[in-house]
Structure formats: C-alpha cells, structure tokens
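Quick one: structure tokens for this chain, please?
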Amino acid sequence: MKNLTLILFFISSIHSFSQRSEEYNKFIKEIKKNAKTDKNDQTVLNLLNDFYNQVLQSEKGDLNADIPERLQKLYSDKNAKNLQIMSMFLAYQEYISQTVAGNKETDPNFQFNLITDLENEVKNTYGKVPIIVNIFKAETLKLNGQSKEYTELISKSLVEFPDSIPLKVYKYLDTKDEKTKDDLVQNHPNHWMVQQFEIK
C-alpha cells in the first residue's frame, strides 16, 4: 500500500502548483520509480473502464463494492503491473474529491499536468486512452478555458465512444445541439448527469 499512502500524503499537502513544481516532479518520479510495466496485463485498464461504466455511464453513478476490494488486492500484490497508472488516476480522483469537499478552487495547472501525465502513461503502456481519461482531460481543458481543444476532444471521443452518455451531455452543454438533447431526454432521462444539468 506504499504508493497509495504516498498519494494521500502528497495530495493533502497541495497548496498551489502554478507550474510543474519540484515537489510535483518528485511525486511523479516516485510513482514511476519501481513501476513494472506490461502492456499485456489488462488489470489496471479493466479497472479504469469499470470506474467509467459504474460512476459515469451508469444511471445512478454509484461505485460497486468490488472496486475497493480489487484496488486493495492490486496494491497488496508485490508483482502488480502498471501500478503507476492507477496511482496517477487515484491521485487525480483524490485531488478533485478534496477540492469539492473543501469547496476550494481547483489549481488548473496542477490538474492539467496530472491528467496529461496520466494520459501519456496509459497511452504509452496500452497504446490507447480509456474513455474516463478523455473525459477527465476534457473537464480540465474546460476549466483552463481551452474551449477549442475541449470541443475537439469531445467530438473526437464521441467518434470512438458514440454511446457515451457523459460525452453526449458535454457536447450538448457546449453546442446546444438539439439532436443530442433529444437523444438524452428520450433515451437517458434518468441518468444522473442529465438530471444534474437539468436537460429536458
């Protein structure tokens, strides 16, 4: 559980990262230091996809009880592969959770650096980027005021994942496309994001 403890300690000490600080670089270096990378081991990739399906794509957005158990098993395995990817993902999740819980403003530069490093690491390992990382990257681009890049990423991601409800929600909020709205209202009226953004 060493990496998980490191994540929690690092996130709890964050104040402001206007650039790639020395502390941030040390954090990423520490995560990668003893990483065992294996493109054929799908354990972490499957976890990321399950996070997406349960928390973002599902109607209620609830995480199943088996996910913490699988994470515990992963971090307890001395021979676990691609742990650096999961550690970056959990660091991102923890940062967002603490920011929301504390009603604090996010640090867009820190958030962008972390999601970009996660994106690069997962792409270099598996040759592709899971949809949940694309969505987090889009949210970060929006936060950074990079509207053009945000719109392009949403459109590109929808080509690859045309049934993604979160992507459709973000597309509608960005473009007010009536066809997308009709799809959401008619086919996914009870999805938690459709209700949260009052799309009707």
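The chain has a mean pLDDT of 88.
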